[in-house]
């Protein structure tokens, strides 16, 4: 069922991004140029940083590989990408405090999760039909594995694997500075192509409905909004991005995943003509689930409780970008500095992203 009130938050974000764009400097003295006022294309290629303009001929012209939708292309430009992502979780947390398995089971649960690995292979494509818009598609293939401990001391694992939710977005450059600065906005949709009905064998059933974190998709059409600002200097580049994922409606399992809000900033240093190293801070906050899957019993395991899914986390990331002709190889490792979870909930220990990008 579609809830019209769910449009309020993404519309507020859109208004905020528009205000951000309108506040950018527009005079020559303030080194700005607006799309539609200045006829110079707003692109990520063709500018020379040595003469005060953005250039894609440097390894740091792309953000760390864990940042999505970070750049735009000139008219007719194509880029294909493949990313491998691993998120490793081990142990539970409630608020900012870690909990032992026995402490979780002591709250009355029959089962507690002990660890989880989430792997994703993300295939991406970008194409710019015009200088003012770059189209982006991201297709994920997801594999999840969760280990459990029962109150009787037994252990078991559950797995799920398949297509995740496909994202389609448009990236719209709105400002280019005369000293290597770029700003673009993002608007798009996340399509409900991932399954919300995954099952696996457990000690209680040969085909049990898996809890919320083990499902592959949201089951709803969601709105993606974002804004990215970057600047190049002789020594390297730096940037920031705000992004939000806003859920619309309710899926066929009678629930809606929580909205997700992300804010990240980074700096990259040119360590060679074809290589750069980056440092990044990434903050993410996600809400509780609204509604509940009637097949899940929240008293059995914490992951089946829709009211125990919210949280926030601050990560620090170290990355490298390498350029080989028209191809880019990149890697980034993110480690949590701080986590505050509406638990008991598995905490994140490590996120790894490896990527290959090919521009045409």
Automatic annotation (TrEMBL):
Signal peptide (UniProt feature, chain positions): 1-29
Keywords: Signal
Protein name: Transporter
Keyword Signal in record: yes
